Amino acid sequence: MHFSKNLTEARLDKSQLVTSAPFVSLNSSIEAKESARVLRMRQNRRKTIDVLKVVHPPPRRSVPRHLQRYLQSLSSHEALLYAKREIEHAPLVGNVGNDSYLYAPVFRNNSIFKRSYELMEMILKVYIYRDGKKPIFHQPRLNGIYASEGWFMKLMEANREFVTKEPERAHLFYLPYSSRQLELALYVRNSHNLRPLSKFLRDYVNMIASKYPFWNRTHGSDHFLVACHDWGPFITTEHVELKDIAIKALCNADLKENFVAGKDVSLPETAIRIASKPLRNIGGGIRVSVRPKLLKHWLNKDADMRIYGPLSRRVSKSMSYVRHMKSSKYCICPMGYEVNSPRIVEAIYYECVPVIIADNFVLPLSEVLEWNAFSVTVAEIDIPKLKEILLAIPLKRYLQMLMNVKMVQKHFLWNPNPMRYDLFHMILHSIWYNRLNQIQIPQS
């Protein structure tokens, strides 16, 4: 099965594009009364939820001067120890007042996240290596399905809050390369040979290690890279410490492909069509893996399960891809050639409960987010039972997930001018949090 690469212009929403992606709507005639009720509740809830989209996060907590002086007196390692102890004794917080911006049900532990985030703002300093020539380094690509790595690089290098020019003060060191640019610069098309890319990155890290003292003192455990290309895990394999010790923020967060849960970070894959408008014209990559199985079991088999390959002209004339997602209760997010897919974030953008079909996938930002609160995970082997699984979810449970999708949405936005708790800060926090995971508190 080959998915069409032609994108049809949306008729009902000209700011969006129709893409070739399977999805589902479960508005069964058997459940007509329930569906009408769901629609009314969604419309009523939308009136209140939409207000939250324009609400700015609460301001940063002011740090007393004596605490500022104390933190400045600590070495980078001592500061991390301090942060880890503080997080372990995080005070319980509710979901009222300023804390209501952080909606507790979408977090694994709202108290720990809030304290960890505050400490990141108080303490964290990142040093960005200036070494490396463009376009592979310091030249982010801001559109396409690999745009997450580019947006992070752009916002990180422009940041004044966390970035330091004094590496001795740094708690983390950023290797500012683009896996997409590396592919474009070095990969020989149709060669199926990725070793030149991996060797290039190996040589770069070796150069960093020989030129500066920072890599060798921790064997790279306080260094991180951000790569959204499917080949991101493989490109690190020629350098053992880069593969096994450094922190890798990867879209391809596959437990079977050099991804270490608790150390590495699952990077959300966000497909950006227009770089100047990162939240408009969101599309998806055209990849095939479990999708033929979905089509085999559900294409034109059931009126309640609207599973498509490429949208036909007849279908796209009546309703665009985006409108289909927005009018559906559940949106199918199957893996592509690799476990990651931009469709997961699209579903969150379009307020549709994601149904994730990707075995061995570590979900994005899972260090802190409680994915079971706003998504459904289905094993690939259970695709034939997909409708049965979804219809078995009670209405009350679905409405809770829908509410949570809307409340978690703000944490997946690329804001050109970053805001607290948005996607840039959430990714940086996960890197910070996983670095703290590697720190051992001495036994007293």
UniProtKB/TrEMBL annotation:
Main location per the UniProt record: Golgi
Keyword Glycosyltransferase on entry: yes
Keywords assigned by UniProt, alphabetized: Glycosyltransferase, Golgi apparatus, Signal-anchor, Transferase, Transmembrane
Example GO molecular function: glycosyltransferase activity
GO cellular component: Golgi membrane
Compartments where found: Golgi apparatus membrane
Domain Exostosin GT47, first and last residues per copy: 124-390
Transmembrane portions of the chain: none
UniProt entry tagged with the keyword Repeat: no
Pfam families named in the record: Exostosin_GT47
Record membrane topology: Single-pass type II membrane protein
Family the UniProt entry places it in: Belongs to the glycosyltransferase 47 family.
Protein name: Exostosin GT47 domain-containing protein
The organism of origin for this protein: Gossypium tomentosum (Hawaiian cotton)
Organism lineage string: Eukaryota, Viridiplantae, Streptophyta, Embryophyta, Tracheophyta
